[in-house]
Amino acid sequence: MKNLFLLFLSAVVAIVMTTVGGVALAEAAPFHPGDALYPVQRFVENQALFRPTANDKASWYVQLVERRAADLAQQAGSANQADALSAFDEAVLQSARWLAQASPDTKAALQTRLSGLFTQVQPLLETWSAGSQQEQSQLLAVQARLETFQSLLANGDLTPAEAARITGDA
């Protein structure tokens, strides 16, 4: 019985340490598309651990959009640009979902940040050359999503119904 308890306790400690390490990894954000630990970092980031409220999650995902925009600029023209674009798009989708649920004050500040960021990213995407037909389709879809999101942000308060237009959620 004592051995079983020690085994259980060891498993719990390992899970806690892995979670804490993963969160620290995501917060530090040292990895970029193409790095070996980048998929692990993305997974942990997308869990939005320790962000219990819609405001916290919306702020987190807007911060991720900013990080992913930096990755877009860094990876333009590289073999990892499709991964960077996919991660950026995923962050944009999550930011729309949570932004629509945020309080009015938080939402207003975050919408301003996103609007400015999208204004910077759109010209970058227009200069990209996609290698495959799939990358071209992905690029066009992201550009269309950004245009829709930008126009909704310009109209004011993002509602859950408008967020669903961006994310494709029914």
Q: How does the major sheet shape up?
A: none
- Total strand segments: 0
Percentage of residues in strands:
under 5%
Report mean pLDDT, rounded to a whole number. 83
| Order of helical and strand elements | HHHHHHH
Separation, N- and C-terminal Cα atoms? 51 Å
> What structural category arises from helix and sheet content?
mainly alpha
**Low-confidence runs of at least 5 consecutive residues:** none
Number of helices: 7
State the helicity in percent bands: over 70%
Indicate the radius of gyration in whole angstroms.
18 Å
Question: What general form does the structure show?
Answer: globular
Give the arrangement of secondary structure elements.
Elements: H1 2-28, H2 38-47, H3 54-75, H4 81-99, H5 104-126, H6 133-154, H7 160-167
Helix pairs in contact: 1-2, 3-4, 3-5, 4-6, 4-7, 5-6, 6-7
